[in-house]
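debug: dumping io for the single-chain case to check the tokenizer round-trip. Nothing else runs in this session.
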Amino acid sequence: MSLPDTRVFDTPDILIHALADALLDLAASAIATHGRFHLVLAGGSTPRALYEELANRHAGNDTWHIWYGDERCLPADHPDRNSVMIEAAWLGASRIPPEQRRPIPAELGAEAAAAEYAIWLDGVSSFDLVLLGLGEDGHTASLFPGHVWTGADVLAVHDAPKPPPDRVSLSAGRLSESQALWFVVTGAGKRGALQRWEEGEKLPAAAVRGRLTTLLWMDRSAAY
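debug: decoded output
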């Protein structure tokens, strides 16, 4: 499957500002339509810059519901967890109620956390927006080449090629249960994965598509 519709920006800073604008517009539209905004967050340095920008704009209120695409099986307060990074960068100072910020309880272990998160997600038929990154090997969330990407809504991941080996991830199918899905990619190191995706290699990222919209946001250095 070829690359999704692509938006290319000269620098990461320009990309982040445009991305924040688009995210807030989409949130306003979702809230006007059905009174809430269900957003799935990604880890990584580029998303962190987005979260810091959202914090600067005082984004989020009691109509926002926050979910996570994946998490590392580490203690709840470990600095390498996506939830710790995102709380520090944005959510902790936001007006989104704590009970509507739902980190994956990966400290329970992969299987127990996957089962618990699946229960939490049971009442959410579709997300409004999923944010995802792209690894140099073509992985997204914690869906890695050579691993299972489908099946249950939430997957227990073992033997991940990046530490830690145990993780929890929404499946390709569950991530695709979203009205909009945006990949955010920066840096020359991602060019190889993008080229392999364009050439039709069966990468995890290629297995995920939004119901209405799938976009690839990237900076000029990632374009090949």
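debug: round-trip ok. The beta strands are 5-9, 37-41, 64-68, 70-72, 127-132, 154-157, 167-170, 178-185, 213-219.
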